[in-house]
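ok so for the tutorial part 2 we go from a plain amino acid sequence to predicted structure tokens. step 1 is just haveing the sequence, like this:
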Amino acid sequence: MKLTKFFMFLAALALFAACSKEPTQLNPGGYTGTNKDISNNKTAGETESSAAQNLTEVDRPQKIQEMVASRGNQDKAAPTLKFIEPTPGATVNSSTVKVKLELGGELMGYKPMKDPQTEMGNHIHVILDNQPYEAYYNLDQEFELRNVADGEHTLRVFPSRPWHESYKNQGAFQMVKFTVKNGGADVTKPATTNSNQMMSNANTATAPEGKAMENSTAGAVDTSKPLLTYSRPKGDYKGVDAEAIMIDFWLSNAKLVGDGGDYRVRYSVAGGEPKFIDKWQPIWLSGWTNGKHTIKLELVDKNSNLVENGGYNSTTREITVAK
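step 2 — the prediction. this is what the tokens look like for a chain of 323 residues:
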């Protein structure tokens, strides 16, 4: 009898130990490799409400409609760009790459410039490799890409409106490949001025506009294949500007299904349910919650398969919303 009670005691003890032990996670956090895809896993600063928010597509905001009305015929313009510097295939023996563009086409009053009071205006989106764009306002001066690493690079440019909506006419988009050789860039940090201050965008008479660039290279991109260029959203959105946020992009060598083509643009927010854009035009999304959000844009075929092109056709950016 005593022996039976002893074995029952041992069995109960073993059962208690098994229940109190934490279960082993076969795939904690959905992480299956050496690199996390931030579109499927929330970043440390991303709010829990980010993935659960209810985003809806809305009309162009009233503020933007009023800006369009005040610009006369500029929205009907068809601006074109041409690279003066760098030229296709050029080798640049400096970590500072000077960008010079020629503006042409049917301008109808369109001219890049920044209003000193509003800090807004027509501008050119300048994209090194697949980094976020930089805004170029004064085409009378060169734009400097500073601290560019050695290697092959791509440069993409296209005209934009004050609210960052791109012009999508033929000839507006241009792309070149060039190589930086023996430039001596410090790839561990952005460039600094002589006073040891970090460089930032500038538009003064003494210093050209420009930006210290992050470390990147061109990748195996083919300029003759379908190419998606991520443009917006980008950066911080505050107050009324956070009510409706625009998704915009440039599309090369491809047509979307809604325009009679074979491709779609797939987007997702914070790893949420993917949705599709079937016509090449911007969309506006409302319902954002405060905090950080990741936005992923991809070019896919009719069967929702990613169209590969050097990694450029799948791009993720992070924005911050503060209403």
